[in-house]
Fold this protein.
Amino acid sequence: MTDHPEQPQDQADRFARAREKQALALLEDYVELIGDLIADMGEARVADIAERMGVAQPTATKAIARLKREGLATSRPYRGVFLTDQGAALADRVRARHRTVVQLLIAVGVPPETAELDAEGIEHHVSKATLAAFDAFLADKP
C-alpha cells in the first residue's frame, strides 16, 4: 500500500495497458503456435490451430484474420496459414522469451512442469529490462 491513493486516471491507464497486453499476448500465442505447427507438420491448418488453442474454428479464424491485418501471417486456400517474415521473427522472440522465463523459474526452484505452465502467463508481461535481468542472472549460474 502506498501513502498516496492512486488517481482514477492512473488506474484507468494501468487497466488499459493490461488489456492491451492481454490482446497482444493472444496474438503472440497464435504466432508461436503457427510457427511450431509449420516446424512440426510442414503447415498450420485452421483446424489444428483451433484444436491446439482449445477454441472453436471460427474463433481461430478471427484471430488469424487479425494476424493477417497486422502483417504477421498470410493464408492460401486449401494450404493453411503461414507466417510472414515479421510473424516468424515475432514467433522466435516469443519462443526465446518463454525459454528464458522457464529457465529462470527452474533456477529459483520451481518444478519444470509448473515452470512451463507459469511461464505461459508471465512471458507476455515481462518487460525488456526484466528479461535482460533474467538473462544476466541465468548467465551467472553455473
